[in-house]
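Field: sequence (string)
Field: structure_tokens (string)

Example rows 1 and 2, in order.
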Amino acid sequence: MKKIVLFGDSIRMGYDKYVKDALEGAAEVYYPSENSRFGQHALRRLHDWKDAGEWPEDIDLVHWNVGLWDVAEIYGDPPLSSIAHYKDMITRIDRRIRLLFPGAKVVFATTTSVVDEMFEGKRFQRHNRVIEEFNDAAREALAGTDTIINDLYAHSCKCPMEYRSDETHYNTPEGAAYMGGKVITVLCRELGISASEVKLENFRMEDYTADNIGY
């Protein structure tokens, strides 16, 4: 049976259980109960999540993302992370993954889109033009590696509005299936496995607390 690690921000937390359910019997799927937040937080915590979750070292594939916290603009300030800092974190996280899971394929998911107009007038902002800049920076940082890019940004731009739960997230059964389905397609292709159907009427997302999920 294949072994997969998922880690990332609240977008990952919206689809992780869907992926796990769909791959039951084909792969063991591991993920932390914590939001990966910023790139620097993910770099600091990855080995802790591995130890706490007793993730095996013979992981076949790691699928990860960070970015939504890095691009956040609060009270009109620039994004919380600079482009240069974000690129450095992407490079270092990629290197850390290969240290902790030396036999694993690595897949990086681009940061997903937001509904720009729903942020108007709020002190906390995210903008797709900034997300696109950070996604380009991530691609540049990973260009010299064999990391596979899963373009969740492009996929999310086509997501029906009714699948979204707010201006940022996809925390509905349909949203989990839409985003998780794209992740599953990449995992199955790269690992040569097949997924099972997940019936949405019976599907339940992980019971994360608001503090776990963050924003």
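Row 2 begins here:
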Amino acid sequence: IWALMVIIGFTAATLQLSLLVRKYLQFQVVELSEIKDSMPVEYPSVTICNIEPISLRKIRKAYNKNESQNLKDWLNFTQTFHFKDMSFMNSIRAFYENLGSDAKKISHDLRDLLIHCRFNREECTTENFTSSFDGNYFNCFTFNGGQLRDQLQMHATGPENGLSLIISIEKDEPLPGTYGVYNFENNILHSAGVRVVVHAPGSMPSPVDHGFDIPPGYSSSVGLKALLHTRLSEPYGNCTEDSLEGIQTYRNTFFACLQLCKQRRLIRECKCKSSALPDLSVENITFCGVIPDWKDIRRNVTGEYKMNQTIPTISLACEARVQKQLNNDRSYETECGCYQPCSETSYLKSVSLSYWPLEFYQLSALERFFSQKNPTDQQHFMKIAQDFLSRLAHPQQQALARNNSHDKDILTTSYSLSEKEMAKEASDLIRQNLLRLNIYLEDLSVVEYRQLPAYGLADLFADIG
């Protein structure tokens, strides 16, 4: 009997031990949330892009200097011939993929966009921004997007302690008789304002997927709440501390890794790349939307291709097929080898708008914003608006100089209909072109989501004992 009991006990202990070991080897995790109040908060990277990628001022300048022949030839080419995907060939992306450096020359510069910059109660300049290129928005500019060792730590909340930008979107009148082609299949362009991306410091911005629009004529406040995600590596998880493969200057994020994986898949299957995805420097690989020898085709309309004939775009069709496949089937993700970073900061956003700038302060604002600028660099619409408002201000200034009872003179000053129209036109010009953007922390508390082993080695030994 004793032997039987020993055998039964040993068998039960062995079975229990095997169950405990199996439970341990599953390496399951639990996620705990904790509010931390005593740690500094990383200020995010902030990327801004003009929603209208092309500067009409630069186009006008190129026309005046006879430096726009390639642009004229491309527009003439797309109107002369037919394409299976006319929507794409009339798009900003096709313009960039076929003209390259010419497209970059007429995109916006930061020195033209950025009128005023303050961060944490101190002045900032264009030197605090880094530039990147996006196939849909062209030139984009990132604050706090430089070296990872130069991270900005925040210790105060509110708009006064965050980033405050005053931006001019360069909304100028088009050349007489010239109009763009509205693309009904594009849901992100053909509007005025800036596209803003608030993303983890040092990470790759994705304006189309993660950005939001800020309109001109308003002061936009973006309040942020920081979230910290701490994940476990092997054997409990598969997070990684590696930098982004293919673009070493950026931190790894799961989304950016997948975008690069899509680009590699496209290059492998179509032997071309897409301007809608992060660019990879691969030799002898062109964009899928490139029309080889389009200049020669345009010049010789009676040769291989005749006027109004449809020109084949095989690579573009391949890109569309692969993109549709990737968007409808996520099984490709298992081949990409993309993993979440072991430590990652994200931000909850709340956005509010207010009318800006009030007409009462517009002249003073213009004089302040552009007092340091070279007159030749000041945008045409700003010269007109400032001139209008300055002329309207003269009668009041004369009243102030005449006597001390100037309040009555100011209140009784009357303006003609043309002067009122002038004031309205100046105000419209200002509000159609300027915006203020405040991005700040609402709370210094950080919500940390931390992974912990659900059943660790200490738990195993305790249960065995």
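free_text_note (row 2): Residues 53 and 137 are 5 Å apart (CA to CA).
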